[in-house]
TrEMBL record:
Pfam families: Metallophos. This is Metallophosphatase. It comes from the Bacteria. Residues 3-130 form the Calcineurin-like phosphoesterase domain. It comes from Paenibacillus cookii. Gene3D superfamilies: 3.60.21.10. The lineage of its organism: Bacteria, Bacillati, Bacillota, Bacilli, Bacillales.
Length: 169
């Protein structure tokens, strides 16, 4: 059975993110290699991964070389650092699908880069990135940034289970 994963904010090639987020790497190259290994440790060839933005700071050639190393079908929802490049640029870089806007998954989960405003009366869950090591409290938000999952995409069933466990508390 093919699995579905979610992840956000790799910032491949972004040396300064190491200091901004206290990532445990000496260089962007070391970070990139680790993140590729972590991705492939959990994602199989036929799995699907929703990347919630801020994927790469490299040019198209280097970005494509990274995308080609990553297992799974890759769906990119553009983040604030991705939007300077066209949808076609990202497709040419190897993504299977690209969305400029948030998408609704399974009629209940809103996948976006930036967290969306969710009031307590809304029944939906916003799975997002953008805020890195910060977290919003409550049942309406799930932060999929790499910092929370040792740089591994998180399985959608694990997200669902963690939200159900929160609801029971």
């Amino acid at each position: 059975m093919n699995r579905v994963f979610v992840i956000s904010d790799h910032h491949f090639g972004h040396q300064k993110i190491i200091d901004f987020e206290s990532r445990p790497f000496a260089s962007a190259e070391e970070m990139d290699d680790y993140m590729i290994r972590q991705w492939n440790a959990v994602v199989a060839k036929n799995d699907r991964v929703f990347h919630l933005g801020d994927f790469s700071f490299y040019n198209k050639e280097k970005t494509k070389a990274i995308v080609e190393q990553l297992n799974g079908q890759k769906f990119l929802i553009l983040g604030n650092h991705d939007r300077g490049r066209s949808k076609t640029w990202w497709l040419d870089a190897g993504f299977d699908e690209v969305s400029e806007y948030p998408i609704v998954y399974e009629s209940f989960y809103i996948l976006s880069h930036e967290p969306l405003y969710m009031n307590k009366h809304m029944p939906y869950v916003n799975i997002h990135g953008h805020i890195h090591s910060q977290k919003y409290e409550g049942l309406h938000y799930f932060n999929a940034c790499v910092e929370h999952f040792d740089y591994k995409p998180v399985a959608f069933e694990d997200i669902r289970n963690s939200l159900a466990a929160k609801e029971e508390q």
